């Protein structure tokens, strides 16, 4: 049988992006050989790198290249250098444009504590041991995109900043369905997070999610207000299986959930639309303070490549192999600075990549 060919667009972006991308691409190539998958990689500019080269954070060619690929692997964007630019020229605006441009309304952010890294968590071992949460964040609506938005001048000449948190029924239903389906494949418990005690948009959210639950009788649905959810995440995180929430609440809660696992440097994410290519990226940022120093942890990028294989290309055996390689290098004691522990061997980005390639040669148990 001829090898399956996939076109993958690589958006290395800024800061540590290029270093961790190099590791993930090497891993994909190696696993591709093992599973007879042929990858055609094409690089495109995004974020600060695109601002410097093309004057805008998401050039039209980049969006076009992404649209014409089977999946997009993104590293990280942004940095101090571009922080003072007007909003439409900021790297973050490019990321939002990519999400909107590809219709990526569903963002899956798993936060699973690995036994090897329990002591890297800032919470007590007994609180985090066994944590395995999937945050399903709505990604193309809510206050990030609602109209009107802007800084306006009032009649008295005072400036007024405005954003609008809005969701339509169909927007709530489509993310709700993704979340119920995700919960079904996990522990069959879904917690919907909102602020329905104050916000009308949240009341509608709660009503629709409750309505949808009648179609998913096998999934146990609960609701929490977002302030309580934040508290529960750090108090007793094991009560959560799958969480579904809007764009802003999901942004905040997914960072909190990420940190339960010890390092945000370990966590991947998948952003998916109704059809077309998904974008796979680590939850962490571009870490400009350690860029170019061979210090960055490439594992979230590599695990994002595993999510690309699983959710983007439906190649779950190859995804399992990559995830297993990550566990193997951790078992072997290799650690980058962010997850370093006594008795382990400190390695840089490249050496971690080499250890992964060696681990990939071992068969999946
Ligand atoms: C994230 C980030 C982005 C967001 C920023 C960089 C625009 O924080 O992916 O969580 O707020 O969505
Ligand atoms: Mg965020």
Summarize the structure.
With 365 residues, this protein is of the alpha/beta class.
Shape: globular
What is the distance, rounded to the nearest whole angstrom, between the alpha carbons of the first and last residues? 25 Å
Radius of gyration: 20 Å
Portion of residues in beta strands equals 15-25%
How is this structure best described in words?
Helices cover 40% and strands 22% of the residues. A ten-stranded mixed β-sheet has the order 2-1-3-12-11-4-5-10-8-9, with helices on both faces. The chain folds into two domains: 1-111 and 261-365, Isopropylmalate Dehydrogenase; 122-257, Isopropylmalate Dehydrogenase (3-Layer(aba) Sandwich), CATH 3.40.718. Helix 1 links the parallel strand 1 and strand 2. The model has no long low-confidence stretch (mean pLDDT 95). It is an alpha/beta fold. It contains twelve helices and 14 strands.
Task: Please name the defining characteristics of this protein.
Isopropylmalate Dehydrogenase, two-stranded antiparallel sheet, alpha/beta, 365 residues, 14 strands, 10-stranded mixed beta sheet, binds magnesium ion, binds 3-isopropylmalic acid, 2 domains
